[in-house]
């Protein structure tokens, strides 16, 4: 009986392997078939009334299927080895919100951020501040859709998110990405020098989801890069110990306020290099600060910006993080809730989007291996979708930051005298 089972398992694995190879061939054939079909169809289109009179069927800002900034959309987890759509940067939704302590709803975050991005598109993405666009031929950015996270079992959900992230991290970058002679921080090729296997890995911009999604992400990144330095924009610390939370099994300790503590316990963080920026939440007491330092973080408070300005914040962060692999995690509640109300645990007296944009620009050129934006819960948004729109434009800044070699000089009005001394001179 045992021998039969072994034989059966062996036979099954051979069948599975051949099915995988077959699926890969099918994908290649499908892509080629679609390409040929498009070529054949091109000749006929001019004969058709609509095309001959009005041209191609383009998606307008308010029309078409929903992807971030109308980027190419692919269910990347089904695209074996990225055969049809290789990428440098993947936008990946993690619609998970079953680890929150107050308002649920961040499972709609990926939808909300994509919806807020409808006026962004590659043909109109050049910004004055960057004097460039993140959607260039040098970097392939695609929307990889969402991980189909279960809302009923956090253990399974965490396993899904880690598996999905690891799967995409293991994908090859496009062939031309590492063919340029001059190494560039802006290209995913730069991850080669940081990875333990010395291979280039794509970078993932994750749309949360509540903040607990960062635990499976850090587990994935740790496998590829070793201990990770975290730059954490948030009004909350999220380093609280899991003691005191009640539940029947270990997964009850996964909350959106404790995941960094757990990550530190698992040695995923590079202690002494991580930094929070924008902190202003109420604490249990001074013991929260010493616990936070034990976890590996230093705090930059929301109010610090009044004393040292956005560029002072940038300098504190750059001086702290060092040269190892860096993960940037951004909770939308770092923005003031009068501007971005749609979030799970709002804290008044926060930063403006303009201040945050300038700080993000100042971080370009650091060794980023991944970024996220989390805690967007569109059900609490204004009728004007302010949070979703602010979040989408933060994503645009994050993409621009990932593909830039360093901070931009920034556009200055020609009406300003070249030698004018202004209060913000030197700021980005
Ligand atoms: Mn927060």
In short:
By secondary structure, the chain is of the alpha/beta class. Helix content is 35%, strand content 11%.
Notable characteristics:
Arginase, Chain A; single chain; 428 residues; 8-stranded parallel beta sheet; 8 strands; 11% strand; 10 helices; globular; 35% helix; binds manganese (II) ion; 2 domains; alpha/beta
Instruction: Provide the CATH architecture of the largest domain.
Output: 3-Layer(aba) Sandwich
Question: Helix share of residues?
Answer: 25-40%
Order of helices and strands: HHEHEHEHEHEHEHEHEH
- How much is the average pLDDT? 89
Seen as an oligomer or otherwise, the chain set is single chain
- Structurally, the number of domains stands at 2
Strand content: 5-15%
What is the CATH superfamily label of the largest domain?
A: Ureohydrolase domain
Number of helices: 10
Structural class: alpha/beta
The third-level CATH topology of the largest domain is: Arginase, Chain A
| Bound molecule kinds, no repeats | manganese (II) ion
Q: What is the alpha-carbon Rg in Å?
A: 23 Å
Task: List low-pLDDT spans.
Answer: none
Give the N-terminus to C-terminus distance in angstroms. 72 Å
Explain how this protein is built.
- The protein is 35% helix and 11% strand.
- It folds into 2 domains: 22-57; 68-403, Arginase, Chain A, CATH 3.40.800.10.
- It is built from 10 helices and 8 strands.
- It has an 8-stranded parallel β-sheet, with helices on both faces.
- It is α/β, with parallel strands linked by helices.
- The model has no long low-confidence stretch (mean pLDDT 89).
- Strand 4, helix 6 and strand 5 (274-279) form a beta-alpha-beta unit.
- Helix 4 runs parallel beside helix 5 (214-225), helix 5 (214-225) runs parallel beside helix 6 (259-265) and helix 8 runs parallel beside helix 9 (353-362).
- Manganese (II) ion binds at residues 234-236, 331, 333, 345, 375.
- One of its GO terms (biological process) is putrescine biosynthetic process from arginine, via agmatine.
């Amino acid at each position: 009986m045992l021998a039969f089972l072994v034989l059966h398992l062996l036979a099954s694995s051979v069948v599975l392997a051949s099915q995988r190879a077959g699926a890969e061939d099918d994908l290649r054939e499908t892509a080629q078939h679609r390409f040929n079909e498009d070529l054949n169809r091109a000749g006929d289109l001019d004969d058709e009334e609509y095309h001959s009179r009005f041209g191609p069927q383009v998606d307008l800002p308010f029309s078409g299927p929903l992807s971030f900034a109308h980027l190419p959309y692919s269910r990347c987890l089904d695209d074996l080895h990225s055969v049809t759509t290789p990428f440098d940067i993947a936008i990946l939704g993690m619609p998970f919100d079953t680890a929150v302590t107050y308002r649920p709803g961040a499972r709609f975050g990926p939808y909300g951020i994509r919806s807020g991005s409808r006026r962004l598109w590659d043909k109109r993405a050049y910004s004055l501040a960057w004097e460039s666009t993140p959607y260039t031929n040098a970097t392939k950015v695609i929307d990889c859709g969402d991980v189909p996270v279960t809302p009923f079992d956090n253990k399974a959900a965490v396993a899904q998110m880690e598996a999905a992230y690891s799967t995409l991290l293991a994908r090859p970058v496009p062939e031309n990405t590492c063919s340029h002679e001059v190494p560039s921080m802006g290209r995913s090729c730069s991850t080669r020098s940081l990875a333990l296997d010395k291979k280039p890995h794509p970078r993932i911009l994750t749309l949360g989801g509540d903040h607990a999604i960062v635990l499976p992400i850090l587990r994935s990144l740790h496998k590829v890069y070793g201990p990770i330095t975290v730059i954490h924009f948030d009004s909350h610390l999220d380093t609280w110990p899991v003691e005191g939370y009640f539940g029947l099994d270990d997964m009850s300790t996964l909350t959106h306020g404790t995941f960094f503590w757990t990550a530190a316990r698992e040695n995923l963080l590079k202690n002494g290099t991580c930094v929070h920026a924008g902190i202003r939440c109420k604490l249990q007491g001074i013991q929260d600060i010493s616990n936070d330092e034990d976890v590996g973080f230093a705090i930059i408070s929301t109010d610090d910006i009044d004393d040292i300005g956005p560029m002072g914040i940038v300098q504190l962060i750059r001086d702290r993080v060092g040269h190892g692999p860096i993960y940037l995690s951004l909770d939308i509640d770092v923005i003031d809730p009068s501007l971005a109300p749609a979030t799970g645990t709002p804290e008044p007296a926060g930063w403006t989007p303009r201040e945050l944009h300038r700080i993000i620009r100042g971080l370009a050129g650091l060794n980023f291996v991944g970024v996220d934006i989390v805690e967007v819960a569109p059900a609490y948004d204004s009728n004007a979708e302010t949070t979703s729109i602010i979040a989408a434009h933060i994503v645009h800044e994050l993409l621009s930051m990932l593909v830039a070699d360093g901070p931009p000089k920034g556009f200055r009005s020609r009406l300003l005298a070249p030698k004018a001394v202004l209060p913000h001179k030197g700021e980005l």
